[in-house]
Design goal:
By secondary structure, the chain is mainly α. It has 20 helices and 2 strands. A two-stranded antiparallel ribbon has the order 1-2. The protein is globular. The model is unreliable at 426-435 (pLDDT under 50).
Length: 435
Amino acid sequence: MKKTDKPIYLLLFVVAFAVNMAGINVNFFTDDPGLYAAIAKNMIYKKDILQLFTHGQDWLDKPHFPFWMAALSFKLFGISVWAYRLPALLFFLISARYTYLFARKYYDWEVSAVAVLILMTSQYVLMANTDVRAEPYLMGLIIGSIYHIAGLEERFNYKDLLLAALLTACAIMTKGIFVIVPIYGALLGQLLFKKRFVTVFSPRFIGLYLLTLLFTLPEIYALYVQFDLHPEKTVFDKQNVSGIKWFLWDSQFGRFVNTGPIARKGGDPSFYLHTLLWAFGPWCLMFYYAVYKSGRKIYNKVQLPEYYTISGGLLLLVLFSLSGFQLPFYTNIIFPLFAIVTAPYCYKQLSVRGNKFRLINQWAYIVLFTVLCFTVNLLLKPANWWLFYLDCAGFFLLITLINKQIKDLHRKAFLLIALPPFLPICTWSRHCILS
């Protein structure tokens, strides 16, 4: 890559950052963010960070970490919509930073930059940063854990040990024990393909497991105080409900096998294969292509730069696909892994068929996303049309700049396909919801 191309990448990072932050003060428009914000607000009013309440009743559905972060933000900045979203957006930025750092360990600067740009322009990431749940936290915590575990696998040092354990524990305290699947699945994949499996039992990793357990104790203690100490409480229409048992099994694994108190019938093994077409758009088809090519290399015993991302990402994707409890935003948490897997195939020279496939993929998404933007604005009729026109002007200005500055056709195509998600989500979050 020419040095003159770097300013274009940096400009797109700035635009991506602005678009992801655009919805920070948008009013809540789905149930979950309002509920989670209210629970964090109750922590402030009750001066109790150990117990979760809503509508005056004990609440047992999610672990504590996101509520602790939201409550801390409320304490520092006051109770508001933007203060609720702020910590989640900071963890999203942490995920972008760790995506770059991890990719930079094994690839060149451009692959790392492309991976970050893929992550920041993925459709459901942009949406999730307005409709904030637990996923932005998990994105940063999971890729951060894997990055430090990779450092620990290379050589022992206390920084990687402490941060890997802390980030993994925070991820567990965000969504439950299941988050160890992509984290330790990534490690196991790396060690298996490198034929170093016994390393998983080395003192450094035994120390990691023990420290992770230690850092998870605040969650276990909080659940013990609120529920296990009070068997007389009625939760899920039952008494003698153990908060610790719920945390260790029912909160996630119980959902996956439909044995927990919150269950959902059905489940389609192909659900995420077609959901990713829009959720990880405009990069999904290239991700599938990258998985196919990586799989062929593994089959043919061609060594990959690393095996963390494809092992951790695909293992959790398979688990989600086999689950009876499926929601489209679940896969957001492994989008950093998907982005790193996809990045090398988005701009480099491929085979003749590969280049044709990539060209079809690019133009399909460019046309569909742009048409979607105009259709949404036409149907929903936002109040401030002049802002939409301003977005369009910036959009076409970026297209002109890329066409003028970038000479390599493959890089130009990649940067152009990165632009369409900016326009619809920026317009949708800033105008359609508010109108």
